[in-house]
């Protein structure tokens, strides 16, 4: 039943509390039993591969994963939540962007003392591009933060979004007394000296006078909750809480269950595919290679779009043409990887493979549809790769192909010369590249300055491309798929060529 699925991600600036909130969501869903397990598990996993040391050193999360938990709604139905973890560090925006293509909604976590921070904003813009509906969680109200009105107005102004407060903190920081549900007027209070929330709901409270006044102002000053406006991405309901102390988290889960959209139709060139469609289809939004260094396996993460997937089913990847049987699909439950027998639209399936599946591929039973909207982004940093040992050219080519397929880097093979160029969206990806080349492919490489500053995919008729190539061979390269790329010395260069070649398009993204 696809309408029992909620597939979502948490977007936030580092330190706003995403990890803590994830832990608490999983705890409430009964998926993990000890707070801190998300981090602990992460560390055990990281220890398994050398390149992941970078994560540890920098205290960031490089790998994404999928966490599934269930909760019974008040009406007795069971809702399955698929939480897709997005790497928080800004250098990993490309991977994060791709993950956001696989969700139906997002939770935006904001630190009550800091408001909207740069990374929150960037991720929000990606959600807006695809009209992904957003529930806002203003975190850390157990500490002194900014005034609620200030925070609400900032969300509204900076993100050009209607805001609708759904709850209200009674006091903040040391004066924090509980959280008021605006619709019912009930206050959830922490109990006992520890102030850990124990679920006590007080129905007969007399609010302090200033809170009562604030509430009146809030109700008068902001629009009422409107499900349609939320689902079309024009309005965000706002919840206040503390992930650390577990205040407001249950309300947040209820809100996702109640308001967040079930699996949405996904676009193809021939129109959207509805989840109710019987034919099984999905798309790959992430590939992770070498999860286990002893095996050269890869896991491709597929978001199921339509149909009921059954283990052993044959699906045809758009890039391949011949069907593959999926015998050991993996569902990523928080405690463990589990073998999936069946999955519904909105679910994520891990498909082990040896490199046949790539980010952006559509998988389907009849091989007649192609999902659109999974872009590659033009790299902002380009480097030339130089080998310390020139006899390792073959290994390097294999490694660059693999890693570009996984989305860690993009690779460009110039038409002239033998110096391969890698492109990344953030600096940190370069460190990951060097470290993984060494650890997984035994290739020692250095990165040197590149003569180019940016890259654009070029499209046009064969004739127009040939004419362009005649004069610009020095600036032409092929990407991993063999598609032509213009390597530009500057943004100005791009504009200049675009003007001179109106028959060609120079694109900063490439949709596969
Ligand atoms: P992130 O994944 O978004 O980067 O944030 P994370 O959950 O790691 O939280 C960042 C810091 O903020 C952590 O403190 C965490 O304990 C704290 N924090 C998260 N939610 C709340 C909250 O509701 N209230 C308060 N007061 N603090 C919160 P840290 O000291 O950096 O890490 P740790 O030593 O606690 O692990």
TrEMBL record:
GTP binds at residues 12-19, 85-89, 139-142. InterPro entries: EF-G-like_DII, EFG_III/V, G_TR_CS, P-loop_NTPase, PrfC, RF3_C, RF3_dom_3_sf, RF3_GTP-bd. Transmembrane segments: none annotated. It is found in: Cytoplasm. Keywords: Cytoplasm, GTP-binding, Nucleotide-binding, Protein biosynthesis. Residues 3-264 form the Tr-type G domain. SUPFAM superfamilies: EF-G C-terminal domain-like (SSF54980), P-loop containing nucleoside triphosphate hydrolases (SSF52540), Translation proteins (SSF50447). It comes from the Bacteria. Its main location: cytoplasm. NCBIfam families: prfC, PRK00741.1, small_GTP. Increases the formation of ribosomal termination complexes and stimulates activities of RF-1 and RF-2. It binds guanine nucleotides and has strong preference for UGA stop codons. It may interact directly with the ribosome. The stimulation of RF-1 and RF-2 is significantly reduced by GTP and GDP, but not by GMP. Belongs to the TRAFAC class translation factor GTPase superfamily. Classic translation factor GTPase family. PrfC subfamily. This is Peptide chain release factor 3. The lineage of its organism: Bacteria, Pseudomonadati, Pseudomonadota, Alphaproteobacteria, Sphingomonadales. The gene is prfC.
């Amino acid at each position: 039943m696809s309408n029992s699925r909620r597939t979502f991600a948490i977007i936030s600036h580092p330190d706003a509390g995403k990890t803590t909130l994830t832990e608490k969501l999983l705890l409430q869903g009964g998926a993990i039993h000890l707070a801190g397990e998300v981090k602990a598990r992460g560390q055990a996993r990281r220890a398994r591969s050398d390149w992941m040391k970078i994560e540890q050193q920098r205290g960031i999360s490089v790998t994404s994963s999928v966490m599934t938990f269930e909760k019974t709604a008040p009406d007795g139905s069971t809702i399955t939540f698929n939480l897709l973890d997005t790497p928080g560090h800004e250098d990993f925006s490309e991977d994060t962007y791709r993950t956001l293509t696989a969700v139906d909604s997002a939770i935006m976590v904001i630190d009550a003392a800091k408001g909207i921070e740069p990374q929150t904003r960037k991720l929000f813009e990606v959600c807006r591009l695809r009209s992904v509906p957003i529930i806002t969680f203003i975190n850390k109200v157990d500490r002194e933060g900014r005034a609620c009105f200030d925070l609400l107005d900032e969300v509204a102004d900076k993100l050009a979004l209607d805001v609708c407060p759904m709850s209200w903190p009674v006091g903040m920081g040391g004066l924090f007394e509980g959280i008021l549900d605006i619709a019912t007027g009930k206050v959830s209070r922490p109990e006992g000296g520890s102030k850990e929330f124990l679920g006590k709901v007080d129905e007969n409270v007399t609010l302090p006078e200033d809170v009562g006044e604030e509430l009146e102002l809030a109700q008068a000053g902001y629009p009422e909750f409107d499900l349609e406006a939320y689902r079309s991405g024009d309005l965000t309901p706002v919840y206040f809480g503390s992930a650390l102390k577990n205040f407001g988290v249950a309300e947040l889960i209820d809100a996702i269950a109640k308001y967040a959209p079930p699996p949405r139709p996904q676009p193809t060139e021939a129109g959207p595919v509805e989840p109710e469609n019987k034919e099984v289809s999905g798309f790959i939004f992430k590939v992770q290679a070498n999860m286990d260094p002893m095996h050269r396996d890869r896991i491709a993460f597929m978001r199921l779009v339509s149909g009921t997937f059954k283990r052993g089913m044959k699906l045809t990847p758009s890039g391949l043409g011949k069907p593959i049987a999926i015998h050991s699909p993996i569902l990523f439950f928080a405690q463990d990887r589990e073998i999936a027998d069946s999955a519904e639209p909105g679910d994520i399936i891990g498909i082990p493979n040896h490199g046949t599946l790539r980010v952006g591929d559509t998988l389907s039973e009849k091989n007649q549809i192609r999902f659109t909207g999974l872009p590659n982004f033009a790299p902002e940093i380009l480097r030339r790769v130089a080998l310390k040992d020139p006899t390792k050219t073959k290994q390097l080519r294999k490694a660059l192909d693999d890693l570009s397929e996984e989305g860690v880097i993009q690779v460009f093979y110039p038409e002239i010369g033998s110096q391969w160029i890698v492109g990344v969206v953030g600096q940190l990806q370069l460190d990951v590249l060097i470290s993984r080349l060494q650890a997984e492919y035994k290739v020692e490489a250095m990165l040197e300055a590149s003569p180019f500053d940016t890259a654009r995919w070029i499209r046009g008729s064969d004739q127009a491309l040939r004419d362009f190539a005649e004069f610009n061979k020095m600036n032409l390269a092929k990407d991993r798929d063999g598609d032509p790329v213009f390597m530009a010395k500057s943004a100005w260069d791009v504009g200049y060529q675009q003007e001179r070649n109106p028959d060609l398009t120079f694109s900063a993204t490439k949709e596969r």
